[in-house]
Amino acid sequence: MKLASQVCKSSLSVYFCYMTVTVNAIFETDFKPAKALAKVMNDRLLKAADELERVHLKSLSGRGFQSDDLVIYLSYTPKYKIRFRVVNDVPPDIEYFVAECCGRLGYLLWRANAIGVSRYGISL
Prior knowledge:
Number of strands: 6
Order of helices and strands: EEEHEEHE
Structural class: alpha/beta
Number of domains: 1
Oligomer: single chain
Radius of gyration: 16 Å
Strand order of the largest sheet: 3-4-5-6
Shape: elongated
Largest sheet: 4 strands, mixed
Distance between the termini: 27 Å
């Protein structure tokens, strides 16, 4: 779900860049809900990812930001709360803005090791 492609334009020696914002819904969790519940949860997670990308983080894709990509993962906790994680390196002010938006929406910070990397730096 890309909001805008990464485009940089040079006009009258002014350099404008657009940040690409991507929010991905991660359906695999540490627990297995019932089939009917899983469908409702997946639909809710897709809607939350789309809303976060198109509405709440829309201002990040405007002019004046670095031409970086911002990738966010959304998933569920075992207690059915939505959690978020910024998965790439972005400036601290962007990460703070994302945390602020997600906090206002009631999402929890996803506190885990890097995905696919164990505690000792060895890929699983």
